[in-house]
Amino acid sequence: MMGYANLDQSTAGIHFRLRARAFIVAESIDGPRFAFVNLDAGMASQLVTIKVLGGYQKVLCLRAESEWFGNMYNEDNLAISGTHTHGGPGGYLQYVVYSVTSLGFIPQSFDAIVTAIEMSILQAHQSLKSGSIFINAGDLDNAGVNRSPSAYLFNPPDERARYARDVDTLMTLLKFVDGESGRSIGAFTWFATHGTSMSKDNKLVSGDNKGAAARFFEDWFTSTSTNSTSFNAQDNIDEKSHGRSTMWSSQGFKVRKNDGGSLFVGAFCQSNVGDVSPNVLGAFCTDTGLPCDFNHSSCNGNDKLCVGRGPG
C-alpha cells in the first residue's frame, strides 16, 4: 500500500472503492478549458499523467466513436491531484524510492488508476453544459491538528505570531450549478488534513476521510433530493446509530457502481496538508493508553507504540 511505507501493509480486502472525480471548465465548447481530477490515491504520478495524456484519444475513440480529444487536454490544462489517502494501493509511481515498500511497480494498480482518470475526464467532457460556478471559503474547526506540535514550536516566535493556529483551517469550496435548471450538479472542496484516519495497521483499500466524505456527500445529496437546495444533514441520520447513517454501513454503499454517471459529484480535495493530522484526539501509547511523550512522539522511547486517535 502507498502512504505509511510499511512493508507489512499489503491489501487484504476493500473498505470502500476508490474513485476519480473530475470537473472541466470551458469558456465555450471550442474555447480554452481546464480539467481537474481528484483522485483517491496517495498522490498523483507523473507516469500516470503521461499515460493518460498519451492514451485518452484511444479511449474516447472507443467510447464515443466519432469524437476525438485532439490536443484539447494536455500538460498545460490538465491537473491530477491525489487526496493523500494512506489506504490505497502502491506501485504506480515512477521513482524507485516510492516503489520500495510496494516491492516494485504494480501494473494492476497503475492500469486501474489510469483507466479511472480517463473515464472521469470522458464523463465530464461528454456532460459539458452552460452554468455557473460559486466560490466560498471559511474555517473548519476541529478537523485537524498539528501532528508534531513540539516541532512547530521551533519556528521563530515572530513567524508563529502571524497565525492564530498551528494548522491551516481554511476550507475553499466551488459549487457547480446547471445554467438551465439552476440545480447543483457538483461541489469540490479543498482542505488540509492527512488521509490517515485509517491506521498503519489497516489492510483494507480505502479512500480514508476524504473518500468517505465524498461518498457521504454524494449519497446524502441523492437520497434527500438531487435537486434540493436545502442542506439539512440530519435528514438521513438514525439516532439509534449514534449519529451514523445505517445506509453508510451497507454493502451497497461500499461497492456502489455509478451506472450512467452520478447526478451529483462531490469531491474533497487535498490542499497544503503538511503536518496536519485528522487524529484530533491526539497521540496515545498503544501499550498503556496514556498520551505519548510530547517532545519525542514515543512511548518509553518506542515511537512505534505511539498512534494518533480520531473521533471514529
What this model shows, in words?
- The chain is an alpha+beta fold.
- It is built from 7 helices and 11 strands.
- The strands form 4 sheets. The chain has a 4-stranded mixed sheet with strand order 4-6-7-8.
- Helix 1 crosses helix 3.
- The longest helix has 20 residues, at 107-126.
- The radius of gyration is 21 Å and the shape is globular.
State the helicity in percent bands: 10-25%
Low-confidence stretches: 226-245, 256-261
Strand content: 15-25%
Radius of gyration from the CA trace? Answer: 21 Å
Quaternary organization: single chain
Number of strands: 11
Q: Average pLDDT value?
A: 85
Shape: globular
Major β-sheet strand ordering: 4-6-7-8
Order of helices and strands: EEHEHHEEHHEEHHEEEE
In short:
The protein is of the alpha+beta class and 312 residues long. The protein folds into 2 domains: 20-278, no CATH class; 281-312, no CATH class.
Helices and strands, with pairings:
Elements: E1 20-26, E2 33-39, H1 46-64, E3 78-82, H2 96-99, H3 107-126, E4 131-139, E5 145-146, H4 149-152, H5 157-160, E6 170-178, E7 184-191, H6 208-224, H7 251-255, E8 265-270, E9 276-277, E10 282-285, E11 306-309
Parallel strand pairs: 2-3, 7-8
Antiparallel strand pairs: 1-2, 4-6, 5-9, 6-7, 10-11
Helix pairs in contact: 1-3
What would the keywords be for this entry?
single chain, 312 residues, 2 domains, 11 strands
